[in-house]
Structures are given as C-alpha cells and as structure tokens.
C-alpha cells in the first residue's frame, strides 16, 4: 500500500479532483474537495456523466475520509496486502490523442518514417534533418502562408513527410488512442508489445471534455508508443498506439475552476523520469508553451458537426519529448526495458507513476461497457439492463 499524497498536485488542498476508486462493490467515482474524498456515485455513477452534469463542483456524497490519510495498492508491490486501487479517472469517455503537435516531435516522426523502424539509422537521419527542419518549424503557425511556403521548399529539397503535413498543415492529427474503459491509472502496469524493439513513453497533458466539447479539466497521461512499428508505416498507427495497458491517465482529473484554468495547461511544464532495474536513468521535460496548436484548436478539430461524443472525450495533447539518449548501444537511442518505472509529473497535476511490462503480461482488460452497466445496475445506481 502506498500513500497518495506525494503524487498529488502541489496545491492539492485547494484543488477539485475527480477520480475513480476500485472498491469492493465496484468502480466508484469520487470527488476530492477541501482534501476530503466524497463518493459521488449517487450523483453520477460514472465520471463521464459527472463531467456532463451541472453542479459537479458542489456534488455531495458519503465522506470516505481525508485524501492524505488514504493508501492505495500498487500493482507491482507483491509484499503489501490487497486494498483499494486508484483507477484511471476515465470510464465512458472516448480516449483520443493528437500527434505531432510540437516541432521536435515532428522531426522525430520524420526520422521514424525514414529509418523504417531501424533505431540504428535514426542518428544519421537525425543529424541530416534536425537543424534544417527544426529551426524552420519552430516559428511556423500551422496552416499559414508561411507554412505552405515551407512545405514547398521541403518538397523541393526532398525532405517532405506525412508527419510534417500534420505538423504545419491545416489539419491536426487526431486519432483514437484507446477503447472506452481500457485506460490504466496511477500505480498500474503499462504495456509494450513483446515484438517491439524500439519504444518509448510520451508524457502529455490530457484535457477532458464534456459532450459539447467544453474542457472541464485536465490530467497527466502517458501515450505509450512503439516507434519501430509506426516507423515501418504510418498505416500501422493503431498497432503502435492501441494495445493492452498502453494508455495511462491520472492520478486524478483536476477540474477547472477559478484557481486552475486552461491557461495553466497552456503554461504547464511536464517532466518525465524513467528508472530501470539496470540502473539506467533518463529524464526530460516538455513545455506546453511551445505547442504548435492551441488546446482549443485541437479540441475543435476533434468534436463538431462531423463527429460527436455523447459521453464526452479525453484528448492527449501531444509531447515535445522524444527520447534519443542511448541505452543499450551507441547510436541505438532509447527503448524501454521490462521493469522500467516511469514518472510523468507536473506541479499542478501531480505525478503519474507506472511500471513497464509487456502487453501480453499486463493484466488483461476485462471490464467492458456491458459489465460496468451490470455492476452499476446491481448497485442500484442506474436502471435495469436488459
């Protein structure tokens, strides 16, 4: 069992936090207000419904105790007794992601594509592309006349890529990261496929929206990515991104209020630390102030007349952090080892900590929508399910 306090936002006592706890009766949405944990399952049986229901910030329910007195089970700690688990704060929301939203990320995607999944070729290609493309991209507004002029110049130089298209073109890359209910939370395993030899974490801010597309809060996320698989072909994006335990979110959704707004997301610094059982340590940071597209633009390209989300959605906003630190051999860059402990942190969102295993060895995803509905019905939280 682990105390949650060290993983909370620095000002957590002033924050409104929405989350889910696995209790003996089933997944339970909770609201943390003034440091107290309230079971709001009678107000809203899912966090998706809670985000869409007026009055969430003042919702009431049974008081489960003080948050700083609570301890939760950590999946990899086999010595402690089983207890309550802090789940992903998402349930029925669609889990979407935006890619190539930072200039550095765009360059790395070009490298992936040109290396065809071969980490050994990446350093050579990186040295050829980074200075020319990175410096130009950093000052370009996507979709602008300047961007179109840059596109023409890169095509003439033979350097154009589909990743640069979404980095500086008018259309953002928006894709489905994970099925409903499949994301994992703080203290759980994250998975990489056993047939992947080049992969990495992607530390991101995840903005959570109600069915109208209005952002209601934000959390930390790890968009686990298989670089070798996506590098072979962008058409393999689904296989590279959507796997068992590949979407981590948590520890809580911090709800927007007068003390925490979308401007805090825009200025957030997101840090990453990876510690391996082999003694390897890698750290880095991603500044949201350098994002190429504003979060509201990315939200606007996700929801609208062409696409609706009646249960709301969560959107990974992308990362500028592309790990290139050599781990196993010179020029081979970074890839995960089983047992890596990964910490994604930001001062006002807390710390999301997970440990790496394979997708095949991670606990299988078994609770789907029908199972959740049966559970909620059996608890008297919703009407009967036929």
Terminal-residue CA separation: 38 Å
What summary fits the major beta sheet? 11 strands, mixed
Q: Which structural class is indicated by helix and strand composition?
A: alpha+beta
Report the helical percentage.
Answer: 10-25%
Strand content: 25-35%
Annotation, overall tally of beta strands: 20
Structure description:
This protein is of the alpha+beta class. It is 23% helix and 28% strand. The strands form 4 sheets. Strands 2, 3, 4, 5, 7, 8, 9, 12, 13, 15 and 18 form an 11-stranded mixed sheet that branches. A 5-stranded mixed sheet has the order 10-20-19-16-17, with no helix packed on it. A hairpin with a 5-residue loop joins strand 12 (203-209) and strand 13 (215-223). The chain is globular. 47% of the residues are buried. The mean pLDDT is 90.
Structural topology:
Elements: E1 2-3, E2 17-23, E3 26-33, E4 36-39, H1 47-52, E5 63-66, E6 71-72, E7 85-87, E8 94-99, H2 103-115, H3 119-137, H4 145-156, H5 162-168, E9 173-178, E10 189-192, E11 199-200, E12 203-209, E13 215-223, E14 225-226, H6 227-232, H7 237-241, E15 247-255, H8 262-266, E16 269-275, E17 281-287, H9 295-300, E18 313-316, E19 341-346, E20 350-358, H10 369-378
Helix pairs in contact: 2-3, 2-5
Main attributes?
single chain, eleven-stranded mixed beta sheet, 23% helix, 386 residues, alpha+beta
Quick overview of this protein structure:
The protein is of the alpha+beta class and 386 residues long. It has helices at residues 47-52, 103-115, 119-137, 145-156, 162-168, 227-232, 237-241, 262-266, 295-300, 369-378; strands at residues 2-3, 17-23, 26-33, 36-39, 63-66, 71-72, 85-87, 94-99, 173-178, 189-192, 199-200, 203-209, 215-223, 225-226, 247-255, 269-275, 281-287, 313-316, 341-346, 350-358. It contains ten helices and 20 strands.
